[in-house]
């Protein structure tokens, strides 16, 4: 059923041609020329720009038609590096350019020696002549020689008049120094000197296009090699001046092979000839022995295009092939480390399929290996290259012919048997005679497919796709389940991916998706290990392979979680990932070579691990791998230490000890600078670069450029991704930073100073270079830390010292004057304080007699019906003048407060219109009396805004008073309001209010207008103006305080317009001025009384009057004499003594008195428990809020300002007594309703009641405990106790004691089993009958009825 077909591989060594295209970063795919500069960078001339390549990235120079600093054209035909390291670029039809690589500046050469226009010339060739000169062939013009330092044409060496030179298209310099020119007419010309030439014809009939010279090079013996457009390759012997055609397809003259475009010699000195038909590689320079490199899509078989345009061999002996519109191809000198075998279409010389699924090295043939594929089985002799295919029915090699022979597992034994696991077919045994025996297992059951195999003597341990672990006994050829715990019970639907038997002690089982299992053979125990998120656990549950090395270490490979090294029982695993150097975290297989190195196939190539250092070396396609992806069971190793790896694209094999490390280290350079992550170029504003970073030796950074990045690269072209880097900034870093393949170093916020940046790299084999690249970096300090700044600081310091000393002398000179000025200021301050104190006291002294004048007038005379008309008129005059005097006193006091800084606005929200209506209404009667028209123009009906109502009222009242004073009869006074609005948040808001008070009086002369707001200023009497000069000054001071202003417009004979303007938005005012309410809340009243020795009726209420003015005491006593017993005191000390003696019901006291003030009296009464219940009322001329707060804090319950209305005073006293009466009733209610505890007093707010009640309870059973005992216990006289209890409870002493006894009796009736008589005795009643009567009086029912009621409620 199986047949064998044998073929030999092609004996020629294979070569892979890596490719670079536009996808790699190349600017365009047609490569006209390739060179390498002195530093090692490769340059490619393309049809769309000049490219510099460093192995990783391309830097492209192009033309920008809108930017004259770029190349003149992008179609680059040729290029050359001059002695200064700058690049010259010749274009097609766009002239010549020079790129100064140190600055990035581009020079365009657009004029000839006589001013000719060279901007459109085609430059076909450029040669560095040395001695700072370059020679340029301009097609159709001639030869141009330029001085590379001066950027000038050298006229004596330039030849643009010779027609022969106009045809020159190639220039070549011989190793001996001679210059050779090739023309488009088939001439090879020797340049003997400036404008001196010796031409040679390639052939007699050479003036045809196909003789055009395309390339000139030098043969090994010094002969000149000349490639032509269609006549092949010629060899010229300069000694005999003879041409020989050495490479030409004579049978087909039109063959593209005859178009020779380029020449180079590879590392083995083989001559490469680039043609339009691919590359021909000579054996050395034997033109009869060669092979062709043709075009092929597969890089292993050929280059990307037949049309070769350029060839070049670099300093690392790699050969580069440029093509027409197909990019670059590279034949690397270092051959692939891995050999490869692939599927080859239409031939049996390769694999049956590219997908290698299983491998088994032969145990009987040291050079043979079995290769399992998804379509069959092959046997490969890697030494001879012979391959035998085992195919079904000996059919042709087609991918689908063996679709039912998918090899998944293979194991060979020492007898030559090959055990094969075939998907869906179980085991197949291939004998040494190539006969096969099939051993199916549960055919048709997908869970029975074999997924893992381990040879144990004469048994095969097998893993399945869902039935656990089974065993195949080779002698008996039977399957069985050897370990029940490893059967379907624990592994149903679990795919087993790997099996490892560890010294016949444990079986390690890897699964797909379910982690790791360990079966202990001796204890028959199964341990499960899966991903648990810990640092020493496995990272992924997909296990692909389990391997044990020679040191008995267990390695677990996962499909996504990297590599795990088992550390021992209870210690977990050590994990290795890409971050540690692995090629991929998806691992497939592991083998150990004879040196102990571990080889790991992955999904990203192959990794080789040093078992001691745990360092990795990675291999990829550039090393000859079939691809990055390898398969899990496709690996094997033979006794000669050959390693075999299979993947999705073929087979790789390598001798483990054949690897040789490269020791040459690529040069490393800086390629870029970024500041704050933005690339920096030479010549940009604020750029620290004077030269390109590649040529910069010392980088100087400004103070604001301390965040920067440096890009670097090692010029490795074959395997640049394997280069690893390390850098250090000396002066900042303490050690080298090893950053792997990262090619950027970033530093932030460096301190000013000098640093040295060093960077080094490894080659592609990981060998570190010893000599790093160095760049000196200086970070400049900010200007204030420079040397000249420190010099300036020194000058400033010494100047300051000098100035200080001079200042000291000046101060000493003026010391006396300063003292005198301070003394004068202190005197002024004292005078101000004296003046303020005077105003305060005089206002008080004046208000008291005014009160005695105004209050009796209001009470007894103004509304006296018995007074005749004349008496009423006289009394009214007295009253009005007293009010005027009071108004004047108030104004003086307000000015005093403002001047002392004690007047603070009280800002609250008011209805300004309502207030204005009230003020105007107050003047309407006056207007009728004086026959003056009073007009009030209101803009709105209501206006709620923020302002100080008191200030505004005073200002408007003053202005109206002045207006009425100076407006004659039949005149007019008008009040008008203006609203000043501002547009905000899509609506209008009122910001300011302006109120005009206008009159038709005589007006004011303009000479007096600037002074009318000065204090006490009066317009002369001749003008008709009289007064005190205080009103307008007060208005001005008040409006300034209110953040407003007052203005006047007046004209003699026409009248005046006074207006005030003030803010009404809450945001204009200080937060401390704002009050949510302008009403002051007063606590409950309190009072004191004074009198000579007199008898006091206990039942009648007592009022104490305290005032140092006898007339005031008499007046107040007269108001209250019909209702109260009046006691009087002249001083606070006397009042305190009398209050303790008589315990008055109310105390009315003046604020300011000799000795103890009214405030201190209030404080003393509140602090004494005998008097702390008495309502207190203060009479004062201090109407400020601060004064009211001070009084409240001292204990006052209410205030009445002088002068006061007698009716108002009576009402205030009545209200205080009503409050006290409510408190008494509240206590009585508590006595009846409050819940009590036996032996404990009720809880009262008043501490006196609390103490008195507890004292009674403590003596409850003492029937002899009476009022005298209560007086002693409370340390009070009979009068004090009586009046105190009466004030608080309306009860006398005996009544109070009885009330407490009954209260406790009620508690006992509710909660005890005593009878009524026993309870009566317990609460201090000697007579139960009296107890019953008293109880019924207090609670409305007898004790017996009370008990019966309780029993009824309970039932």
UniProtKB/TrEMBL annotation:
One of its GO terms (molecular function) is sequence-specific DNA binding. CDD domains: FN3, HATPase, HisKA. Keywords: DNA-binding, Kinase, Phosphoprotein, Transcription, Transcription regulation, Transferase. The keyword Transcription regulation applies. It comes from the Bacteria. The keyword tRNA-binding does not apply. Residues 1250-1349 form the HTH araC/xylS-type domain. It is an enzyme of class 2 (transferase). Its EC number is 2.7.13.3. Transmembrane segments: none annotated. It catalyses: ATP + protein L-histidine = ADP + protein N-phospho-L-histidine. The modification 4-aspartylphosphate is found at residue 1150. PANTHER family: HYBRID SIGNAL TRANSDUCTION HISTIDINE KINASE C, TWO-COMPONENT HISTIDINE KINASE. This is histidine kinase.
